[in-house]
Amino acid sequence: MRFSAAPCLGRWLVSLHPLRAEYLLTDKGRSLLPIVLEIGRWGFEHGFEGETEVRNRVAEGVYNALPESRPMIEEGGFVSGS
């Protein structure tokens, strides 16, 4: 099964020429965000040991790209709130 056929991700055609599609989370996909964010928290705490600067740059990118991640990132002290 392709991931786009899974109930957590929807695919919408944006244009036919050139062929372009947009992928968005469905309600089921959004319901996974708390789990994904906890996995992310674990990764920020344990995946960058000794690499604080790299961890903070990654956290800043996630913070800017995924608003849902902001409380987790701020609470963990990985970046300061904007």
Pick out its properties:
46% helix, 82 residues, alpha+beta, two-stranded antiparallel sheet
Strand content: 15-25%
pLDDT under 50 segments (min length 5)?
Answer: none
Query: Roughly what is the average pLDDT, rounded to an integer?
Result: 85
- In the sheet with the most strands, the strands line up as 1-2
Instruction: Return the string of H and E elements.
Output: EEHHHH
State the end-to-end CA separation: 40 Å
Instruction: Please tally the helical runs, counting DSSP H or I stretches of 4 or more residues.
Output: 4
The major sheet is characterized as: 2 strands, antiparallel
Specify the helix fraction band. 40-55%
Which term fits the overall shape? elongated
Give me the secondary-structure category: alpha+beta
- CA radius of gyration is 16 Å
Overall strand count: 2
Tell me the layout of helices and strands.
Layout: E1 9-15, E2 20-25, H1 27-30, H2 33-46, H3 52-65, H4 70-75
Description:
This protein is of the alpha+beta class and 82 residues long. The chain has four helices and two strands, in the order ββαααα. The chain has a two-stranded antiparallel ribbon. A hairpin with a 4-residue loop joins strand 1 (9-15) and strand 2. The N and C termini lie far apart (40 Å). The mean pLDDT is 85.
